[in-house]
Design goal:
heterodimer, A: alpha+beta, globular, B: 25% strand
Chain lengths: 197, 152
C-alpha cells in the first residue's frame, strides 16, 4: 500500500511537472549552454574564465519593454563586465513570427548600438530550462553558476530617471559583498516569449 | 489623482490610472457581477490576437452580470499615439483603462502571486475576490466563454 501510494504520488508529481513550466528558483544550479552569437561564434558561460558571476538576460529586439531596457543593459555590462560580472543576452523569440527578432535584425541591433556583450540565439530552449517567461527577464548567477537573483533590472521600465530600486545592481552588490541576496526575486511587466512552435 | 483620472475620462475613451490600487476598486466590488479583466498592450501580438475573443464574449454576455475591462499596459506616452488610435480603428467600445503604475513588482503580485508579468494575462473577479487567473492567451471565444460559464 505504501509503495502504491508512493508510486501514485510520483506519478502525480510527474504529470504535474509536465504541465507546469519548468524553471529555476533561487538557489538552483544553472546549466551552461552553447549558443550562437551574432558574430557566428558559439558562446558558453564557461568561456568567461575569470567571471565572478553572470548576468544572463533573456531579451529581444522587438519588445518595447526590452527596448526601454536596452541602454540600461549596455550600461550594466560596461559597469559590471570589468568587475567580473558579464552580461550574456539571449533572444528566445521565434524569428518567423517576429521577423524583428531574426538573426539579421539581431546583428543590425548589435551594430547600431555598439553592443559588446554576446547576444545569442536561443536554439536550445534555454529560456524554458531557466524558466524565463518574458523579455526582459534577468537571471543573476554566482561564480558557481548558482541562481542568486531572478527578475527585473529595476523598478521603472518607462523612466530610467524615476528608478527607485535598482534590483539587479543591489543583488550584484550583495554577491560582491559575499552576502545573501536580500531581494532575490522581483516581477515586471514584459513581452511573453514566443518560441518556435 | 482621482480627479485627474476622471478628468481624463471626460476627454478620452481610456481612463488612465497611475496606481493599481486606484484601479482595482473598479473590479473589486461586493456584488455578484463577474469582472473579466484582460491585461494587454497594442505592441503585444498574442494580446491583440485574442482581443476579438473578449469583444465577442462581451457581446454574448451583454444581458448577464458580466463586465469586461481591458487594461492596457502600453507606456502612458503611447496613449495618444497608439492606444487611442488602436481602440478607434478596431471600434472597441469596452471599458478601457491604461495602467501606468511603474511599480510592477508591487502590483503584479496583487493580481496573482504566480503571474510573472508576461502578457497577455487575464483575471476574473467576483464579490471582491479573484476567482480565476490565466497567464497566456486564449485560443478561441469558446475557450473564454467556457471559463466564464464556470464562474457565472
Amino acid at each position: 500500500m505504501k509503495q502504491f501510494l508512493f508510486l501514485a504520488v510520483l506519478f502525480f508529481s510527474m504529470s504535474f511537472s509536465g504541465t507546469k513550466p519548468m524553471g529555476y528558483g533561487v538557489g538552483d544550479q544553472a546549466a551552461d549552454f552553447k549558443l550562437k552569437n551574432v558574430d557566428g561564434k558559439m558562446v558558453s558561460l564557461s568561456d568567461f574564465k575569470d567571471a565572478k558571476g553572470y548576468i544572463v538576460v533573456f531579451t529581444c529586439n522587438h519588445c518595447p519593454y526590452a527596448m526601454k531596457y536596452e541602454d540600461r543593459i549596455i550600461a550594466l555590462n560596461a559597469k559590471y563586465a570589468p568587475l567580473g560580472y558579464p552580461v550574456i543576452a539571449i533572444n528566445p523569440n521565434d524569428p518567423i513570427s517576429n521577423p524583428d527578432d531574426n538573426f539579421d535584425a539581431m546583428k543590425e541591433r548589435v551594430k547600431e548600438k555598439s553592443i559588446s556583450y554576446p547576444y545569442l540565439v536561443d536554439s536550445g530552449s534555454i529560456y524554458a530550462q531557466y524558466g524565463a517567461t518574458r523579455t526582459p527577464h534577468v537571471f543573476l548567477l554566482d561564480k558557481a553558476k548558482v541562481v542568486q537573483y531572478i527578475g527585473a533590472i529595476d523598478d521603472n521600465a518607462m523612466e530610467p530617471s524615476s528608478v527607485k530600486a535598482k534590483f539587479l545592481e543591489e543583488a550584484i552588490a550583495d554577491l560582491q559583498a559575499g552576502r545573501k541576496v536580500k531581494v532575490a526575486t522581483t516581477k515586471a511587466v514584459g513581452c511573453s516569449i514566443k518560441p518556435k512552435a | 489623482m482621482l480627479f485627474c483620472t476622471f478628468f481624463l475620462k471626460a476627454q478620452e475613451n481610456v481612463v488612465v490610472f497611475a496606481k493599481y490600487d486606484d484601479m482595482s476598486p473598479q473590479f473589486l466590488k461586493n456584488n455578484d457581477t463577474l469582472y473579466v479583466v484582460n491585461f494587454w498592450a497594442t505592441w503585444c501580438k498574442p494580446c491583440v490576437a485574442e482581443l476579438p475573443f473578449f469583444l465577442e464574449a462581451e457581446q454574448f454576455y451583454k444581458s448577464e452580470k458580466v463586465k469586461f475591462l481591458l487594461v492596457s499596459l502600453d507606456f502612458s506616452d503611447q496613449l495618444e499615439k497608439r492606444v487611442l488610435p488602436f481602440i478607434a480603428k478596431n471600434n472597441i467600445k469596452s471599458t478601457c483603462f491604461l495602467l501606468a503604475d511603474q511599480d510592477a513588482n508591487g502590483w503584479i503580485p496583487k493580481v496573482d502571486a504566480d503571474w510573472s508579468g508576461a502578457i497577455p494575462a487575464s483575471a476574473i473577479f467576483k464579490n471582491g475576490k479573484k476567482v480565476h487567473f490565466t497567464e497566456g492567451n486564449f485560443e478561441s471565444t469558446t475557450d473564454l466563454k467556457k471559463l466564464i460559464n464556470n464562474h457565472l
